[in-house]
Amino acid sequence: MKTFKYHILSIVGALALLTSCGNNNGNSGSNSALNSSAAEKVYVAPGEQDEFYAFMSGGYSGNLTVYGLPSGRMFKEIPVFSQFPTSGYGYSEETKPMLNTSHGFVPWDDSHHPDISQTNGELDGRWIFINGNNTPRIARISLTTFETEEIIEVPNSAGNHSSSFVTENTEYVVAGTRFSVPIPQKDMPIDEYKGNFRGSLSFISVDPEEGHMDIKFQILMPGFNYDLSHPGRGKSHGWFFFTTYNTEEANSLQEVNSSQNDKDFIAAVNWKKIEEYVNNGGGTMMPADYAHNIYDESTHTATTTMKKEVLTVDPLKIPGAVFFLPTPKSPHGCDVDPSGSYIIGNGKLSADLTVHSFDNMIAAIEGKKFDGEAYGIPILKFEDVLAGTVKSGGLGPLHTEFDGKGNAYTTFFISSEVVKWKLGTWEVIDRKPTFYSVGHLMIPGGNSRKPFGKYVVALNKITKDRYLPTGPEMEHSAQIYDISGEKMELLYDFPTHGEPHDAAGIPASILAPKSKKIYRLDENKHPYAVLSPDEARVERNGKEVHIYMSTIRSHFTPDNIEGVKVGDKVYFHITNHEQDFDVPHGFAMIGQNTSEILVMPGQTKTSLWEPKKVGVWPFYCTDFCSALHQEMQGYVRVSPANSDIEISYSLDGE
Ligand code: K7E
Ligand code: CUA
């Protein structure tokens, strides 16, 4: 009876909510009005595998989560900007340097926009990049190991939001500032913002072999908010487009004061031209302070380099490098279609979408038809660059993706829907409600020349009644639609962790064959590795104790250690001797002020323990690795600080 009542209540609740959203749009809006074939379309039978990988940003989790499509099954959470006790990332001695910044150790961030590396405008599946929004950083994650390999801090930036999108051959990963700030930073009155703060757009070069990042140049722009960006491609390769808002340069109550202008701008940046200028010695080196952290796969260790200068560029010194395209109503998303012909500005306070034409833009620039300037940067005439307007009928457009078949799909936050429309004719073809308040959406390869237009995933901000309640907070919710036909078909909902602002998808056939299965022990160059169990040992060096330990199913070598004293720093350097796919061992020590670590086959990781109490303290393996996993344990005897007990240990029961 109780269950029955509960269902009635939740249905009534759902209906009430739908009505109040006013987003039925002719659809029944019923949760259960799905085609029976929908289940078959998302059903991936036990033992079968998904067709696509979907990488969803974690938002305020600071990480990246990996899902399968169409099943919506979560495969992994990849730690990026946040410490992650599940693997020991940011806790192990080897990975702590990944989170170093000019502000010190910053073990958290807010990640928004993952983007997969490209070659010739198509996904190549080598790396995925993502931005840290709060303490400006860009990370590069390997798509063979699914581990974060590199993080570079972005100086002269704040709220690193119009990031981290790649150019057609991954020449650059681009990062734009949301908040303009004094550059260089200094102590000054906030109400002197206007005309004094600047916005930086950073072009970070990516080494074509190793993927290593380096800030090639920063363009110092007027003090607007640079919200989102996307690269040109095809004919517009060499350009990058950024939406701006707050061209009013208001410094308080922005909710009102930065919505005064009817139009803000899309900034069109000819980065090829600036690159040439910089390669010829242009630009000004400016003192800066930022961290560059690289993880080396052969030593299994990250190192931090503090950088001391950055090359800045004044756009006024390079005629033809930057133009402003007037775009209505505080645009948010800035998306470029697969052909590179159209730049779509989603005016978030508008019902209509503004589509600019790249060809029109070039013609207007060549004809020098300007409509004034802002801080010396030429403004093109709205009518001259406009390709068309999509009269969507929705409200609050945020982001647009493309299916590669001539259609675009735009999310509407306020009216909670995805609207499908046609490039070139600008007519609306279909609309489907989302549950609820959708932000980004994702079609695998949607930001490339070659999208895989089979599914679109809507990433919803508000979950409400879609799942069983879990207290005041619900996980966010993704919805997958089949877009293979003329009309979109909602197939399935699944919860997502953190706030997945944006996502990037790729066919499994590109990634799965390259996925790494083990680290080879004979390639392990970690300075504290034990490559054979005979090398296992314990050494005291003043107040430091280094334990060179190996693991194999199901024991630690050494397993019992004596001679450790209160006040010591005890480093467990653990090498996992397994050479089998999917056999990690874990390590945890009682009272340790950190997390466990999980060591992959062939890898070495270090866990620090600072014993505070005399006693005999156990450690154990945290990953159920064999039938005798519970036997995988050992003890450390801790004596008083002034004791004279020498270090001793037992190797394989000796
Ligand atoms: Cu629209 Cu940060 Cu891309 Cu969220 S952002 S939705
Ligand atoms: Cu090793 Cu459990």
Quick rundown:
The model is unreliable at 1-31 (pLDDT under 50). The protein is mainly β and 654 residues long.
Describe the fold and architecture.
The protein is mainly β. The strands form 10 sheets. The protein has a 10-stranded mixed sheet with strand order 6-7-8-9-17-18-13-12-11-10. A 6-stranded mixed sheet has the order 41-40-43-44-38-45, with no helix packed on it. Strands 35, 36, 37, 39 and 42 form a 5-stranded mixed sheet that branches. The model is unreliable at 1-31 (pLDDT under 50). Residues 554, 585, 621, 623-625, 629, 632 line the site of dinuclear copper ion (CUA).
Unreliable runs, pLDDT <50, ≥5 residues?
Answer: 1-31
- Count of alpha and pi helical runs: 7
First CA to last CA: what distance? 65 Å
What are the bound molecules?
sulfanyl-(tricuprio-$l^{4}-sulfanyl)copper, dinuclear copper ion
Estimated share of beta-strand residues: 35-45%
By secondary-structure content and strand pairing, the structural class works out as mainly beta
Mean pLDDT: 94
The largest sheet, given as strand count, sense and whether it forms a barrel, is: 10 strands, mixed
Strand tally: 45
Helix content: under 10%
Give Rg in angstroms: 27 Å
List its traits:
ten-stranded mixed beta sheet; 654 residues; binds dinuclear copper ion; six-stranded mixed beta sheet; mainly beta
Write the layout of secondary structure elements.
Blueprint: H1 2-21, H2 36-42, E1 52-57, E2 64-69, E3 74-78, E4 100-101, E5 104-105, E6 115-119, E7 122-132, E8 137-142, E9 148-153, E10 165-166, E11 172-176, E12 198-206, E13 213-222, E14 225-231, E15 239-245, H3 254-257, E16 263-270, H4 271-279, E17 284-296, E18 301-313, E19 322-328, E20 331-336, E21 342-347, E22 352-357, H5 358-366, E23 370-374, E24 377-380, H6 382-385, E25 386-391, E26 397-402, E27 407-412, E28 417-422, E29 428-433, E30 438-442, E31 455-460, E32 476-482, E33 489-496, E34 503-507, H7 508-511, E35 537-541, E36 544-552, E37 555-557, E38 560-565, E39 569-576, E40 585-589, E41 597-599, E42 604-609, E43 615-620, E44 633-639, E45 648-650
Parallel strand pairs: 13-18, 36-39, 38-44
Antiparallel strand pairs: 1-2, 1-34, 2-3, 4-5, 6-7, 7-8, 8-9, 9-17, 10-11, 11-12, 12-13, 14-15, 15-16, 16-19, 17-18, 20-21, 21-22, 22-25, 23-24, 26-27, 27-28, 28-29, 30-31, 31-32, 32-33, 35-36, 36-37, 38-45, 39-42, 40-41, 40-43, 43-44
The structure holds sulfanyl-(tricuprio-$l^{4}-sulfanyl)copper (K7E) and dinuclear copper ion.
The site of sulfanyl-(tricuprio-$l^{4}-sulfanyl)copper has 11 residues, from strand 26 and strand 30.
